[in-house]
Amino acid sequence: MALQNKPVLHGYFRSSCSWRVRIALALKGIEYDQVPVNLIKDGGQQVTDQYKTLNPMQQVPALVIDGITLLQSLAIIQYIEETRPGPKLLPSDPHARAQVRMISDLIASGIQPLQNLHVLQKIGEEKVQWAQYFILRGFEALEPLLKQTAGKFCVGDEISMADLCLVPQVYNAERFKVDVSQFPTIERLNQTLTEIEAFKVSHPSCQPDTPADLRT
Ligand SMILES: N[C@@H](CCC(=O)N[C@@H](CS)C(=O)NCC(=O)O)C(=O)O
């Protein structure tokens, strides 16, 4: 049997969408290589012609796996789920599965895109207030939903794709100085999840491209 190449993740240490995928790979125990795409340096490597051929949206992550290039973190996570053994990232019960997708989409479509780098560059001076506003607005919706769905984790007592979205979004909230303690369920879930090895090894503070002054 031909040796399969390791998947290659094109990402950025501080990108929350890349972190979602790193957590999925870690939970499934998949070894992979990383190709850093510096989103800041020289106007951003994501806008180069070379990277645009990989991802025309000029965003990370992109995962090259099984001979194909996959874009969009939730599509990538679901491909990993559907093709790899290991802990399930989506529950089999349709009700719980819908809740996982609902929470994941709320974060991935309703919060993160509004505080994305490119959007903030367009906003200009007001960017911090803008990001805080949309993160707060999203968390105000997320908190009562999670109160209904959460057990130990976002949906019941099993880790799911929703948890992979939550932790990087809380990290972003903290970067933008949003007081997460006003959302006790979000805060509790984040504390529990950040103690888990797969979340720790994929943390922005310890990636190959993490600058020395941000390493812990
Ligand atoms: N929906 C996409 C969003 C990807 C995305 O927003 N990536 C950000 C980093 S988390 C990015 O590459 N931003 C570059 C830019 O805004 O120029 C996904 O889930 O993968």
Automatic annotation (TrEMBL):
<comment type="pathway">
    <text>Amino-acid degradation; L-phenylalanine degradation; acetoacetate and fumarate from L-phenylalanine: step 5/6.</text>
</comment>
<dbReference type="InterPro" id="IPR004046">
    <property type="entry name" value="GST_C"/>
</dbReference>
<dbReference type="InterPro" id="IPR036249">
    <property type="entry name" value="Thioredoxin-like_sf"/>
</dbReference>
<comment type="similarity">
    <text>Belongs to the GST superfamily. Zeta family.</text>
</comment>
<dbReference type="InterPro" id="IPR036282">
    <property type="entry name" value="Glutathione-S-Trfase_C_sf"/>
</dbReference>
<protein>
    <recommendedName>
        <fullName>Maleylacetoacetate isomerase</fullName>
        <ecNumber>2.5.1.18</ecNumber>
        <ecNumber>5.2.1.2</ecNumber>
    </recommendedName>
</protein>
<feature type="domain" description="GST N-terminal">
    <location>
        <begin position="5"/>
        <end position="88"/>
    </location>
</feature>
<dbReference type="InterPro" id="IPR004045">
    <property type="entry name" value="Glutathione_S-Trfase_N"/>
</dbReference>
<dbReference type="Pfam" id="PF00043">
    <property type="entry name" value="GST_C"/>
</dbReference>
<dbReference type="InterPro" id="IPR034330">
    <property type="entry name" value="GST_Zeta_C"/>
</dbReference>
<dbReference type="GO" id="GO:0006559">
    <property type="term" value="P:L-phenylalanine catabolic process"/>
</dbReference>
<keyword id="KW-0808">Transferase</keyword>
<dbReference type="InterPro" id="IPR034333">
    <property type="entry name" value="GST_Zeta_N"/>
</dbReference>
<dbReference type="InterPro" id="IPR005955">
    <property type="entry name" value="GST_Zeta"/>
</dbReference>
<dbReference type="GO" id="GO:0006749">
    <property type="term" value="P:glutathione metabolic process"/>
</dbReference>
<keyword id="KW-0413">Isomerase</keyword>
<feature type="domain" description="GST C-terminal">
    <location>
        <begin position="93"/>
        <end position="212"/>
    </location>
</feature>
<dbReference type="InterPro" id="IPR040079">
    <property type="entry name" value="Glutathione_S-Trfase"/>
</dbReference>
<dbReference type="GO" id="GO:0016034">
    <property type="term" value="F:maleylacetoacetate isomerase activity"/>
</dbReference>
<dbReference type="GO" id="GO:0005739">
    <property type="term" value="C:mitochondrion"/>
</dbReference>
<dbReference type="GO" id="GO:0004364">
    <property type="term" value="F:glutathione transferase activity"/>
</dbReference>
<dbReference type="Pfam" id="PF02798">
    <property type="entry name" value="GST_N"/>
</dbReference>
<dbReference type="InterPro" id="IPR010987">
    <property type="entry name" value="Glutathione-S-Trfase_C-like"/>
</dbReference>
<keyword id="KW-0828">Tyrosine catabolism</keyword>
<dbReference type="GO" id="GO:0006572">
    <property type="term" value="P:L-tyrosine catabolic process"/>
</dbReference>
<keyword id="KW-0963">Cytoplasm</keyword>
<keyword id="KW-0585">Phenylalanine catabolism</keyword>
